[in-house]
């Protein structure tokens, strides 16, 4: 093995180690952020949750906000991957249309009722409200997720020969924000009655697709 090859292998190993460290910090920090908030979460506690010292944090992130953004980015990517892998299976199953749509919205909104993730999302959105710099980072991630959901809802409508009565982007935004609002209420004041908001909105804003003229 030449000196150059050895050096390259060492660099690759260091890169893999750093990537693994970063992933563990991202995965472990959601619970701490949910409990303490972004500003209130001690860096030492964030590191301890992942089994690292403070040095691991500063080797991967400049600020706690950078880590919180990484948590949200990881969430968005994982939810889109799950949506991509699950949609075809749902469409081929015996599930009715409203159930499929509910699975889409529930899955990308609360990650099967993971309130820690929901809390981090709310923390980031509050930070974005206060800072245009944070807003510029969070907006494209949110738009990426919304775009994936819009595509999925369009696929469901097409499979059932339906069309939206409002723009697809508006439909997506209404469904996601309405259901997200329910989750926020649940987090703040406890369980609330399930109002079946997703099936209701689907029925309200879809209709049989009109046949194109020959």
TrEMBL record:
Region described as Disordered: spans on this chain: 1-21
Coiled-coil residue windows: none
DNA-binding region: 42-61
Pfam families tied to this protein: TetR_N (PF00440)
Record key words, sorted: DNA-binding
Limits of the HTH tetR-type domain: 19-79
Matching InterPro entries: Homeodomain-like_sf, HTH-type_TetR-like_transc_reg, HTH_TetR
Domain of life where this protein originates: Bacteria
Name by which UniProt lists this protein: TetR/AcrR family transcriptional regulator
Native species: Kocuria gwangalliensis
């Amino acid at each position: 093995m030449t000196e150059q090859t050895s050096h390259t292998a060492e660099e690759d190993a260091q890169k893999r180690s750093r990537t693994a460290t970063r992933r563990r910090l991202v995965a472990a920090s959601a619970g701490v952020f949910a409990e303490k908030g972004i500003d209130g979460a001690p860096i030492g506690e964030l590191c301890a949750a992942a089994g690292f010292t403070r040095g691991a944090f500063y080797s991967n992130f400049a600020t706690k906000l950078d880590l919180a953004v990484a948590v949200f980015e990881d969430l968005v990517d994982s939810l889109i991957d799950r949506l991509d892998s699950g949609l075809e299976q749902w469409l081929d199953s015996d599930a009715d249309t409203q159930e499929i749509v509910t699975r889409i919205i529930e899955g990308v909104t609360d990650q099967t009722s993971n309130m820690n993730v929901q809390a981090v999302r709310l923390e980031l959105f509050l930070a974005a409200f206060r800072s245009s710099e944070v807003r510029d980072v969070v907006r494209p991630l949110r738009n990426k997720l919304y775009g994936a959901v819009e595509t999925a809802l369009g696929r469901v409508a097409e499979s059932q020969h339906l069309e939206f009565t409002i723009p697809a982007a508006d439909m997506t935004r209404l469904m996601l924000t309405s259901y997200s609002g329910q989750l926020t209420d649940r987090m703040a004041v406890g369980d609330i009655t399930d109002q079946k908001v997703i099936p209701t909105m689907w029925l309200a804003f879809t209709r049989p697709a009109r046949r194109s003229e020959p």
